[in-house]
Specification:
273 residues, alpha/beta, five-stranded parallel beta sheet, globular
């Protein structure tokens, strides 16, 4: 029995398409994030030091990129770094949006150092660039690393605009074909998902579109590829939406509150869950 399992395990290794080191891939994006936002204890004091560190990261990324491409393919060594300046500017705008919208934030540096939402957004933006260039495995490994660290699950295929604000963040799910515009704010527990899951829908838009300026509060669930949340709309907490909402709408769940002392004396409150 053990021998049979050993044979199957060996066959799995020998037939594996990629020669990857998952920990190395995770370590790269974690260290790169800390380097570019100056979160390391030992910082570069000279321009030449920064350039040397960037070149070191480039060499390391080349090895990682080669490990996930077929051996007969030549990895594009600049596929990540050529877009880095643009992504970096987007992330600075994201950090400013978080600072401007969160009264608890004391500085942009605090956002970069400690906010899980900013880390998840940063990893997503780098992963999305690789996703767009059809690089296998790395984008998903990166975003799942962010997911494990922050509780924020952003598929690298999602399209997210500028000045994106995530507050608290735990439990957020943003599906692969989600489209999010500019200046959108999302709070913890929000799901931007599909009506249902089926493998044959792999190449179909199954997740919603959130237009510019929308605000989605905690634990709201928005489902469906044809569902559009119009610009500047406010989606209240705990709502369930499967149809489009026009621009400038306010959607909320209406709860009912009954004061306890209005019930007759000694009569139990009957309820169901």
């Amino acid at each position: 029995m053990i021998m049979g399992f050993t044979n199957r395990l060996h066959e799995g290794y020998s037939n594996r398409k990629f020669d990857i080191d998952k920990k190395k891939i995770e370590s790269f994006i974690d260290r790169f994030f800390r380097f570019i936002f100056f979160l390391e204890l030992q910082r570069c004091s000279e321009y030449s030091d920064i350039e040397a560190r960037l070149n070191s990261f480039k060499s390391e990324f080349n090895e990682i990129l080669f490990s996930v491409t077929a051996k007969n393919e030549e990895a594009e060594t600049e596929i990540f770094f050529k877009s880095f300046p643009e992504i970096y500017e987007s992330l600075k705008n994201d950090a400013k949006a978080i600072f401007d919208n969160d009264p608890a934030a004391q500085s942009i540096e605090e956002v970069m150092f400690s906010y899980p939402g900013f880390f998840a957004i940063a990893v997503y933006r780098f992963a999305h660039e690789l996703y767009n260039n059809k690089i296998p495995l790395i984008p998903r490994i990166w975003t799942e690393l962010a997911h494990s660290k922050t509780g924020i699950d952003i598929n690298p295929g999602a399209k997210i605009g500028e000045n994106f604000f995530i507050d608290h963040g735990t439990g957020i799910v943003i599906g692969e074909t989600t489209v999010i515009g500019n200046n959108v704010k999302i709070y913890q527990g929000v799901t931007l998902g599909a009506h249902f899951v089926a493998k044959e829908l792999a190449n179909v838009k199954r997740h919603p579109t959130i237009e510019n300026g929308a605000v989605i509060y905690a634990n709201a669930t928005i489902l469906g590829g044809n569902t559009v949340i119009g610009e500047n709309s406010v989606i209240g907490g705990n709502v369930w939406i499967t149809e489009s909402v026009p621009a400038n709408s306010v959607v909320f769940h209406k709860g009912q509150v009954t004061v306890k002392n209005k019930f007759p004396a000694n009569e139990p409150i009957i309820f169901s869950i």
